[in-house]
Amino acid sequence: MITHVCFDADDTLWEEGKFFIAAEFVLADVLAKYAPNEDIADILLGVERANVPTLGYGVKSYTLSLIEAALKISDYQISAEEIARVMDAGRAILRHPMEMPEGLVDVLTSLRKSYKLVVITKGDLVDQNHKLDRSNLREYFDEIHVVIEKDAPKYTEIFDGFDVAPEQCLMIGNSMKSDVVPAIDAGGWGVYLPHTVTWQLESADEPVDAPKYRRLKHISELPALLAELNKTPV
Amino acid sequence: MITHVCFDADDTLWEEGKFFIAAEFVLADVLAKYAPNEDIADILLGVERANVPTLGYGVKSYTLSLIEAALKISDYQISAEEIARVMDAGRAILRHPMEMPEGLVDVLTSLRKSYKLVVITKGDLVDQNHKLDRSNLREYFDEIHVVIEKDAPKYTEIFDGFDVAPEQCLMIGNSMKSDVVPAIDAGGWGVYLPHTVTWQLESADEPVDAPKYRRLKHISELPALLAELNKTPV
């Protein structure tokens, strides 16, 4: 019997990745005279990957990575005004409009009558909280967890905190690596809800043989899936 | 009867502010040809203050503020290499050596036998957790709270989570504004432990008339204060 439904935030509850891509377009535009587009994307991804251990996830880290990439790609030839453009493009992500999938509020309104609803998100504490406020979604959730990494030990810790068995917990999100696979590894259900934009560092193999793995096309299918799973004990 | 002892982290459990000042020296050195030292400090503080609502606290925010201040103070004349020096100086704070006050581990070892010990800190989730690991202090604490703002409602929420009355909770730290005053406002004890380096945005009036206000010179005095307070119900 599933009792706790946990949601990823970025690109599950609201659009996020496309605003990062918009910032990357600015970077590419500023750096066009120094390097071809595909090199810029590769170098940026390398800088991001190298920075995750010390800087973590989120817009501030990304903005620092954009600046670092701009300095490197231009071989320190970039002007202060161009740096300012790149920094502003990164920081603008902090103010992006909130765009939620159609029917999300209906889904949450319906599910909260029968389930505890939880947000489990990486990223920056301040920014993720701002988005919960700007989206007016905070009131639908019983718990909000902003964490450093979404790995199996972290899911175990969060599920333990619910005081229920892990198989009573379901996690839904657009990242195989951070939402689906580790939640299943922790003994819960992992529901993959692919998004058109997903960061390369979030990919992982689809756990096609895991009995507690499911895949949805749209979040509006979630109530029906829960109803079905709660009729069929595993 | 005090049962829960809560500690600020930066400049209470370990040295922190002086590493920010080291970065500010680099900023001043890089910008020496553009502006006098005192103007640089003033403009940086203004930039920091303006950025807190969107960027929050911590090294990543500070580094972005350093870059923004460098661009502004140089009137966008600063070179890419100089920007890199400023950014590196900010990011170096993330790797600073951990320096703890003399006797801290003895204090924590002794107190944990009789009290629940808690860290309540602002700053960045990733960085604060790294410092708890680098300092080897994590094991002494029952709970770690990395929060966006340390105000009275936040202390009320944390104290409520302990399932004890607020007067059973004591908060100790070097910030009047974030550690002492709001903990007292939430019904707990506020213990001021001044540090030589405290950020200007953390100042507030000393609550000299508050019955639950105390002031210490060194953290090694804390066990004696707790013993005294627990003999004298208020």
UniProtKB/TrEMBL annotation, chains A, B:
Top-level taxonomic group: Bacteria
A single MF term (Gene Ontology): hydrolase activity
UniProt entry keywords in alphabetical sequence: Hydrolase
Record-linked Pfam families: Hydrolase (PF00702)
Cross-referenced InterPro entries: HAD-like_sf (IPR036412), HAD_sf (IPR023214), PGP-like_dom2 (IPR023198), S-2-haloacid_dehalogenase (IPR051540)
Protein name in the entry: HAD family hydrolase
The species this protein was found in: Paramylibacter kogurei
